[in-house]
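#structure-requests
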Amino acid sequence: MKDEERFCGSLMPRIISLTVLRKLALGKSLSGENKLYFCQLPFLEYIVENPGCTQAQISSRLGITPASASQSSKRLQKAGFIEKQCDEKNQHIYRIFATEKGKENVKECRAALNAADMQMFRGFDENDYHVLCEYLDRMISNFCGSDNKILDKYALYALSNSAKDGGKSKKMQRKE
């Protein structure tokens, strides 16, 4: 067996397992009434961090279609997580704001993600953490070349959406 096959055959299932297990851990904490679906978190988090944004801005930043942004905002509004207000200068534009319920759910989701991450890194000391970061940075660099900038959470979400549609989404923005 070639070295490449040995590395990929044993490492990639572990990386995929971590991703799935982290998502499952978060899903358990999000279940119940008045909770977000996993895919709604980036959408609502963007609104919390950018009060008064528009659906077009959300669509562009998250790499989703305008139709998807419209559908998601309708669902979040119906659930009481967001509210839309007509723009004072242009009646055709609606500004989107998170409600207190929406803000609280984002905090709960973020806390659940942090708890899942703490569970995942249990038993790691600071050196282990830094060594793992160096290895992961090297792996990222193997894909990105010398332009090894870490993508922010919205760019990662957009990149994930781009991968789903075969790379047809808009160019990803990188965190400077």
